[in-house]
Write a structure and sequence with these properties.
3 domains, Nucleotidyltransferase, domain 5, 488 residues, ten-stranded mixed beta sheet, binds zinc ion
Length: 488
């Protein structure tokens, strides 16, 4: 073991942290233990003959998890780091993976074991982790921040995970055998006509402001959708198909939680509203002028009535510094959509009243809301509808910042490929919450989350395990992680 490296890493640890005797990675190890990640991995399917097995399924899954949580970007990157370790350096990693022997597994051994795990098992694990956060009152204790309207906001997004110019998994005849490859034709009918294939996944995310955790990933199969339509239409069909499959699963898993589905105009249609009604999901969905047009016309008619102008609209003027901001809302409760389906409609405008009396429109929006609208709640509902909660940011983080979700971890085995994607989601979930803990915040200091994550792997291999192990956070019988949403 190289003492200079150890010294360097000790110096690199943030000296400002409250628990100066803790090695940073010790806090992560304790957090992973508290979230029962090794136990959850040990429930994965493992048809291997146990008497001949060197590594448990939990250790092999933890190896894949380590690739993602330490943001190594690829299996090869982690493998080449681990391959060079001295026996003393290996000790920390062996403990992290729960391996009692002295050798570390090859990445091929990890893949061979994970190939037996259905990726749905990882989706179930995400839901189990979410359930645990509820049982441990994580949401309850931070309700003012996470459940501002006493509801769990759920968002969803479609994402093109991979694009292939050539089939990535073929049968003996050379035909594409990947069920998730959605064919896209280019230059149709011309000499240049070509086909490429995309993987589209729909992710369901708990979301509140900047905080988001993935709950479910749904990859579409070519059989399920019409792949002849244009990209935009295809993405819409994928999203709606996924919502009709996944939302019932989420409701079944959490029969008592109050969910609100937030999303854009593509969900403003009768089958989806009926689904929400059936599943007791609240919703707040943008309505664009080209969807549910009859409903739009009914509201236009009602707007002309004196009763509506008087009793079903509200306005206020707020003075912000030297600006006068005027907000206007109009609402229509219980509007009939046919087939015994009703909804509530909120129209909202925000404009600035200039000093010369001219009015400058700054925002205009319309939403379908499951909740009845009224004078006291109309502006809050508009605020919720307007929040551009950073769902896209979830995918950006998974794509960049060391998670490298687009990297093809298992090209020739489509199911294994999605298992690796979901492993990234599991790591994201754990790290998102860990990074909010006061211990992680003081340990991290001013480093980026990616650097913090990568540095922790370096600590694991370069700080003696005896020192990591003697960190108070690992020695104490009970550790209560505290969380903070402040940026410092
Ligand atoms: Zn494919």
């Amino acid at each position: 073991m190289n003492d200079t490296i150890v010294k360097n890493f000790e110096n690199n640890c943030n000296s400002q942290k409250i628990l100066s005797e803790n090695v940073d990675v010790a806090a992560l190890i304790r957090f992973i233990q508290q979230m029962k990640i090794p136990e959850l991995f040990s429930c994965f399917s493992d048809p291997r003959q146990q008497s001949k097995v060197t590594y448990s399924i939990s250790s092999l899954a933890l190896w894949a998890f380590a690739t993602c949580i330490f943001r190594q970007g690829s299996k090869r990157s982690l493998y080449s780091t681990l391959e060079q370790l001295s026996p003393a350096q290996r000790e920390g990693v062996l403990h992290f993976l729960g391996i009692t022997g002295k050798e570390l597994p090859h990445s091929c051994t990890v893949d061979a074991a994970l190939a037996n795990v259905n990726y749905e098992e990882l989706n179930r694990m995400l839901l189990e982790m979410f359930d645990q956060m509820n049982t441990r009152k994580f949401f309850y204790n931070h309700a003012a921040t996470l459940l501002p309207d006493n509801t769990y906001y759920i968002g969803t997004d479609g994402y093109h995970l991979h694009t292939y110019a050539h089939p990535h998994a073929v049968d003996e005849q050379g035909n594409n055998k990947c069920p998730y490859c959605l064919p896209r034709k280019h230059h149709v009918g011309t000499e240049k006509e070509t086909v490429s294939w995309v993987h589209t996944v729909i992710t369901f995310v708990f979301i509140c402001g900047d905080f988001k955790i993935p709950l479910y990933m749904y990859p579409l199969k070519a059989q399920q959708v019409n792949t002849e339509q244009n990209d935009e239409k295809l993405k819409q069909e994928c999203e709606l198909t996924a919502a009709h499959v996944v939302l019932p699963l989420i409701r079944e898993r959490f029969p008592k939680l109050h969910f609100t589905f937030l999303r854009d105009g593509l969900y403003a249609n009768r089958p989806f509203l009926r689904l929400c009604l059936t599943l007791c999901f609240d919703y707040e969905i943008v309505r664009k002028t080209n969807s549910l047009t009859t409903l739009g016309r009914k509201c236009d008619e009602l707007t002309k009535l004196a009763l509506y102008q008087k009793s079903y609209s509200h306005q206020e003027i707020e003075v912000i510094k030297t600006r006068n901001i005027k907000r206007k809302a109009a609402w229509f409760n219980g509007v009939d959509l046919g087939d015994a389906l009703k909804t509530n409609v909120l129209r909202f405008e925000e404009s600035e009243v200039r000093a010369d009396g001219t009015i400058c429109l700054q925002y205009k929006g319309e939403w379908l809301c499951s909740k009845r609208l009224s004078k006291p709640n109309c502006f809050r509902r508009a605020e919720i509808g307007r929040l551009r909660w950073k769902q896209e940011d979830f995918h950006n983080t998974c794509k960049n910042r060391g998670f490298n979700i687009e990297h093809d971890m298992a090209r020739t085995n489509p199911d294994l490929l999605f298992t690796w994607k979901l492993m990234t989601f599991i790591a994201f979930f754990v790290f998102e919450i860990f990074s909010l803990s006061t211990v992680a915040k003081s340990a991290r200091g001013s480093r980026s989350l990616m650097k913090f994550a990568k540095d922790m792997l370096q600590q694991l291999v370069n700080v003696l395990w005896a020192k990591i192990q003697s960190s108070p956070i690992l020695k104490r019988e009970r550790v209560q992680f505290r969380f903070s949403w402040n940026s410092s």
